[in-house]
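QA checklist item 7 of 12: single-chain prediction sanity check.
[x] sequence parsed
[x] length recorded as 1362
[x] structure emitted
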Amino acid sequence: MDNNNNNNSENSDNNSYNIVYNNSDISGFVNNDDLPIPTINDELYNLPISPNESYSPEESFELVHNNNNNNKNNNNNNIITPISPISTNNSSTNISPRKPENNPAVPSNDRKINSITGVATPAISIVFGQVMNVFTYQELSKPDFDIYKEISKVTLNFVWIAIGMFVACYIEVSCWSIAGERQSVRCRKRYLKAILSQEIGWYDVTKSSELSTRIASDTQLFQEAIGEKVGNFLHFSSTFVSGFIIGLVNGWQLALVIISITPLIAAAGAFMTKMMTELTKRGQDAYAKAGSVAEEKIGSIRTVATFSGEERETTLYASNLSDALKIGRQKGLMNGLGIGLVFFVMFGSYSLAFWYGAKLITDKYYNPVSHRDWQGSDVLTVFFSVIMGAMALGQATPNLANFANGRGAAYKIFQVIDNHSKIDPFSKDGIEHSAEGDIEFRNVSFAYPSRPEVRIFNGFSLSIKKGQTVALVGDSGGGKSSVISLLERFYDPLDGEILMDAINIKDINVRCLRQNIGLVSQEPTLFGVSIADNIRYGCENASMEQIIEAAQTANAHDFISALPDGYNTQVGEKGVQMSGGQKQRIAIARALIKNPKILLLDEATSALDAENEHLVQQAIDKLMQGRTTIVIAHRLTTVQHADVIAVVRGGTIIEQGTHQELLSMNGVYTSLVHRQQNGEAEDRRRLKSRFKKKLSNGRPLSITDTASISSSISDSDNDSSSNDESATENNDEKKEKRKKKKLEKKKKKTKEKSVPMTRIFKMSQEEWPFFLLGVLGAMVNGAIMPVFSIIFSEILKVFNSTSMYHDAIRLCLWFLLLASCAGVANFVQISSFTYIGEVLTYHLRYFSFRSIIRQDIGWFDMPENATGILTANLATDATLVQGMSSQRLGLVIQNLVTIVVGLVIAFISGWKLTLVVLATVPIIAFAGKVEMEFMSGFSKEGKEAYAKSGQIATEAIGGIRTVASFNAEKKVYDKFKFALSEPIKIAKKKAITAGLIFGFTQSTMFLIWALGYWYGGKLVGEGEWKAPSSDIVDICVPPNYTYGVSRGRCIYIQNSIYGFGQMQRVFFAIVMSAMSMGNASAFAPDMAKAKTATNAIFKLIDKVSKIDPFKKTGHTLEDIKGDIEFRGIQFSYPSRPNKLIFNDFSLSIPAGKKVALVGDSGGGKSSVISLLERFYDPAVGEILLDGVPIKDMNLSWLRSNLGLVGQEPFLFSGTIKDNIKYGKPDATLDEVIEAAKAANAHTFIEELPNGYDTPLGDKYTQLSGGQKQRVAIARAIIRNPKILLLDEATSALDSKSETIVQEALDNVMKGRTSIVIAHRLTTIIDSDIIAVVKGGRVVEIGTHDQLLELNGVYTNLIARQL
């Protein structure tokens, strides 16, 4: 900076000249060789000075600049004039002879200092002015002046600020944290309530799977934008404002010049905010699409696994992530450009400010605030306060990115919240009507919102009298289920009206309307709670006795009681732990307990076996008495006793009447009946004839025999249930064991090792060029402030310089260089680390999803791995880790460099003071460690609590029709609210702790400053720092010594002023380091969250799947014959390890044979298919395919040879063609059409406006049950499997479709090994082998005739269906 200083200081330690003053040892170092003329004798520097020495005005001189001879012979162009020894309170070179006065820029010690956190930082500039006042030559010239005493008084102000800072920081952090959490929770509540308020038609055109993802991810961004980040922004904004106010008060001319630059900063910030908001919105949309894929595919993992779709889904997920990655890169560039501009303008303003300040002094401009010409003290005070304000603006700016992200996320959230629902279940509007039961559809026209061009009803009319049972029959896709949807007000008709008791249902309160209606649908939805709680959805206040009564009526009590936890048994997500028949019976119990006036049954008993169907049908028949009932059934024998049968075709009723009346018409209904009768007659005749021949040694079966058989089978059931009941006597002991296991699991969790950050960096190793750039930018950024401290310490010298304007210009150029470096470094750092962060997010989400999708099905059965929890974690964990390891990593590097460079500067400038200040670092480190530990614990608890609420939301959105039907919106909302009460409790603990620790760390900084200035002043007073010889020679020139004192005092003053400058350099360097440490500690909450998220992600990524579809190893057979053998199988579901499904189960299936599995619901038939598909592995025993254990086979190859059609097929939200091709990804359109024709699906697909390109909509709600089943069958057929697995494959079809599809399946089964599960035995009597499964074993096996000869369980099953 100052060449003279630098040159002369090199040898300044060679000679020491001691002056005794006030019993203090004051040393001045001068090199004789470098001294200019006149030569100074050593004796002159050793004159004793009396403490009471006096001096006259004649001995005082002023150094006045000759501005006309700017830089020529500066040392010779000074006019020495005698002045008054006492002048203004700074060391400015422009000293005028005035009476002593107090500088208004420096307030008195007793001035109140604002303790609000934002104001505390610029308040330091006031205290700094007080400190600087101690070291002015006017004060130092006083004979009784004691530096130690004066500095001790001033540093007390730091203590008062520290106390105020502690209180303010505690209030700021705790209040904003709690406020952010509460607002986030409130937002989540309003968001879910708004979602639940929407009509079902809204779900048809909205990706509901995106909604649950947004609840997790968007609200997280929203929370960040309205929580402590707002507090930070206000904190720094108040620092900015108060800093500028102090600047204006002390010199408005200079302050206004600096303020004029702020529009440029604001423009840069506004540009960045606008771009970030738009890009964030687009990025969140892309992530929502990826989240939709995850939610849909994880929720239907069995279908994905069946068709070996894991790799395809991973690729699809990665494709959506790629879109988000591209947008993220753009965000990084815009963010870097914006913040780079802000810092360039900010440091550029310093250059302008300092140049203009120097000009004001040299041109002797009048400062109206201080009522005198501008002086160095004014410039310093204004400059220092404005610097702090501007720095705060720079610190406030990064929060704008959070606000932009929050705005982008909030846009989608409030788009839903502000959407007014046409059919709002929370609305209190409408008539509170208790239904009598009269229903009328009057000229109704209707089309689904997702397919407005396809009319479902056109002039549909139907009148139903109170207490009537009306059956709707007809082919699949005719509009039967749409009648129920309209009556439930899932949709409103386009034209016409629907009346209930002569009141338009639009005028009836939605909740009241649905309260009068009980619905049992074809595919019942159960929620991931206990059986009792699922039944309680029908009646929220139902007692346990009422629940048991409803279950008994629905014939569900026996199997429920046999479970280890009885009615407290968790059914699993979507009821996955229950068999199809068990789920249906629970759903019927749920409808029964509602005790509705109007009953809607949509294929309510289709999933039940013969006995249960008979018993449940009897219960339903009793329930229907006195109630208006609408029944949809494909099997016409179940509805022939209805009061009215309406034949629906093409959206209108073409025939209507009783069974006999319709038969007499000899129309469509008659043909439907004949078709069904003809289809079943032959099987029945064969069944009866064979049965009569074999039963009772050829004796025909009588009614008495049938009754006795039914009695015996029920007795055997009772025996088994009683055994089960005795087994449940030890339930309490089992519960205790389970509690112990849970505790053990918790202990294991606490012992989990933390994942090293190096694993995260390895994921980003391909981005090393960007990492190097980012690190370089961070290092340059880190060095900016320490370098700034050097430049700033030079300012003090400039104001004492004889060539002030010239030196000021030079410093301005340094500031411009600093501005350029800061701008470029910020751009490079932010854009590079953002790019790395986006790529890291891509990798983390990708590998997390890949790990999830590859897990065995048993893993998904566990409650902690429910779809909602997994998708919520996918959405949030990667973002948290990315945030901490990318941009924040850059900030950490930046802060570390600041600390290192600052400490190096500090040690060089004054090692003693540096060591004293550094001794306080362990206190800060301890506080930071405690904060990290607390935050880590709270973060983990909060994450788990939010995951629970996310699961509730996901389930409710996925089963919205069931939720709406049972008026369960409020129940779901209340559960969601209750689940969110836990995060609020955790947030309060977290906020209080964080506030205390943050207050402690921040106030500690001020206390350290107090210590540093106190000790620094003490060192200056003791002569620790010696002025360079050049300064001594320039100022202490005999015989007329500057400052109006003797030579010895002049040297003492100059050493003190120089020491003050060095102390400032030390302190500024340490302050920058301390601020960086403070900034690093401010990341503690984010670091804690990131640590928890990192552990969770890598635990998931490292999870080894027991049945891994991505493994390329394993045997493959060149030619599959199809021999299957189950050998000594013992098996229980992972989620219910105490409930054995199979115990020594053995079954041999010869190649090419059709094997039927029969028996009551819940006996384990579907588990046979699950084991063969390797959804699970048995605990004991093995399964062989052509003599090779399937465990040793390549999993993808094994499943590619299996074709499965389940009882409840799951279709995806793509087109019909995409869904069929899911069975064979490389299939041509001709193959798709051929498979559809075989499944009898081609005709209805062709009738759709877009044919095979028709999108099915979210949750495939655009197709009827029969249509869905046919598409699923086509998907299995196109696979051309070697082994066919049919689990009630045709149960959802009408008789016509069933006949055609059954013929197609029979053709497909020829020459293939087939396993068929069916409740209707007429469909399997021709099977090569029939195995009766009961109690986890094959109790009978043989052909139909052979089993009849045994006169055992199979015979009883046949008798039950005759």
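[x] summary fact logged: Residues 133-419+753-1034+1046-1101 form a domain with the ABC transporter transmembrane region fold fold (CATH 1.20.1560.10).
[ ] second reviewer sign-off
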